[in-house]
Design goal:
Elements lengths: L1 E5 L3 E8 L9 E7 L3 E9 L4 H16 L5 H10 L7 E9 L4 E7 L3 E5 L5 E2 L17 E5 L5 E5 L8 H7 L3 H8 L10 E8 L1
Antiparallel strand pairs: 1-2, 2-11, 3-4, 4-5, 5-6, 6-9, 7-8, 7-10, 10-11
Helix pairs in contact: 1-2
Length: 199
């Protein structure tokens, strides 16, 4: 399954495949662009199959409903919807075009790297653990980005060496996704990635 989202400020490509032998993917993602902002989220339900899908898709639905809100509220709401569910890891990335800034928050093992044309990398360290509906503190950070910056957000089903050079050495989002294709073949786990460029 794949999806693209684009306007004059952003181009993003999302790819997802379930673990071999499973009919449902335990990961969920959302990519959405408006004239003011771009929001992207990846959630990885614990385990695989139906209960993992139930947890991650609950997060996707709540972010879809409240995407205009700030990341602080979205990460809190994502946690709330997991009450009485299996739990999930999640990362939320929201870029504001007018300010050339983005806000990021994550819990668990979803990885994010942004590479700017000047050679600067931003890779916020995730909070360890997972969300389960229990009260917890979240780490939310805001950074600035340069026009032309490229990013990748991916679940732990994608194991890529040298992710930084992947963003640096490939000019287009199509090039990056073509380079990632061999890493999507093993299917030992649910796999989701989003690659994009901000203009």
């Amino acid at each position: 399954m794949y999806q693209t989202e684009q306007n004059s400020h952003v181009y993003a490509y999302a790819y997802q495949i379930q673990k071999e032998g499973k009919t449902l993917c335990g990961d969920s993602f959302l990519i959405k662009a408006t004239e003011e902002y771009f929001i992207c989220a990846v959630a990885d339900g614990l385990g695989s199959g139906e209960r993992a899908y139930e947890s991650s898709s609950a997060i996707k639905e709540v972010i879809e409903e409240y995407h205009a809100e700030d990341v602080e509220l979205l990460i809190a709401k994502s946690n709330e919807v997991l009450k009485n569910k299996r739990g999930a890891t999640v990362a939320i990335f929201k870029a504001y075009f007018g300010q050339n800034t983005f806000t990021f928050s994550s819990v668990g093992n979803i990885r994010f790297v942004l590479y700017s044309p000047s050679g600067k990398y931003i890779y916020p360290l995730p909070v360890l653990g997972y969300m389960s509906g229990k009260p917890q503190k979240f780490s939310v950070h805001t950074y600035s980005y340069e026009p032309g910056a490229k990013f990748i957000l991916h679940s732990d089903g994608l194991n890529i060496p040298a992710v930084k050079s992947l963003l640096k050495d490939h000019q287009t989002i199509e090039d990056i996704s073509n380079h990632l294709e061999p890493y999507t073949k093993s299917r030992q786990d649910d796999l989701t990635y989003v690659v994009g460029q901000l203009f």
